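Batch 3, record 17
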Amino acid sequence: MTFPDPLRAYFPHTAEQIYLNHAAISPFSVPVVKALHGYIEQRHLTEIENYYSFQPVLQATRERLGALLHTSSERIAFSPNTSSGLAVLATGLSWQPGDRILLNALEFPSNVYPFENLRRLGVEIDYVQPRNHYLALEDFEAALTPRTRLLSISQVQFLTGQRMPLRALGQLCKQNQTWLSVDGIQALGATSLPVEELGIDFVASGSHKWLMGPAGAGFIYVSERLQAQMHPAIAGWLSVTDEWNLLDYQLNFRADARCFETGTLNFMGIAGLHAALGVFAEAGFDQIEAHILSLTGYLQAAGQELGLSCITPADPAERLGILTFELEPERAAALHAGLTAARIESSLREGRYLRFSPHFYNTQAELAQVVALIRQQL
Ligand SMILES: Cc1ncc(COP(=O)(O)O)c(C=O)c1O
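Prediction for the assembled complex:
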């Protein structure tokens, strides 16, 4: 049996459709469905007050997320989604008028608005402009100023699929004394992220895309160094060291990243995330990443043969699971509709970008069917 078998059996929708839209949202695997059912049954029928018995699942999930980011579980906190995670960072640092934040003009808005919202404090936002859809390292280097306190960037760009050179960006940020924050949602699950080795101080991600977990069960990573410079903008009963001392109101923030958790968490979502992370442990990220890269490479080569314009970098070091073609709007809409009618799921973005995002359980045979259909329609 060759990869992705036998894990493909966790995804029975493959009998009915070719799902290539993991950059939007992922199917639940069989283990995730079981975990969610188990949680629902418990709250419905058996151990209704499950607050205490659920604590080990919370901790085990933090540990799995720590392993995903090659760091300690103490540096992980749950957060509903990427936007709220990045807002923890934006609101947790103290800003001076004239401080600058470096973004780029291709980011998904989750990685923009939490920072744009700081303009009222006198913070300036700079945007690196893409060159024909490509974000060049030297443009980030040129845009860093002595006042740039933070660079926030996606690990993989949502539209172009460009995988960012985080090691090099980490070095630039270190030299410039700039914090590096990463939106991991378009990469984590297709790969892992060694945050400490790469000099990354903050990560935010939801888990419903490449991590194949439920919506609303996201998380953040914050380095010890960065946390020492932050103050939680929101305090809740679970932010403190002695949370069960209910009437002794000592606002002593926890020393670990959980000071950014406020109150009762999304237990059901986290039960699903715990199971989803277990599937990745079975598959192994080396194998997952190599397989996904071979799928996007296959689609890129086929697109080139068909004369399609691809905006995703060709170098395998600069892409991962997203592959996007740019077409005339009418043609893009027709092609997307034709694929959808054939039960092939992709995304149409900004009217002219047709985005494919295969995951580890997809096969080259599925992509060959997609290519055959595109060939017919062109
Ligand atoms: C790069 C990126 N960040 C964030 C999100 C989603 O943000 P949130 O988790 O806040 O819904 C998306 C897609 O929806 C995305 O592509």
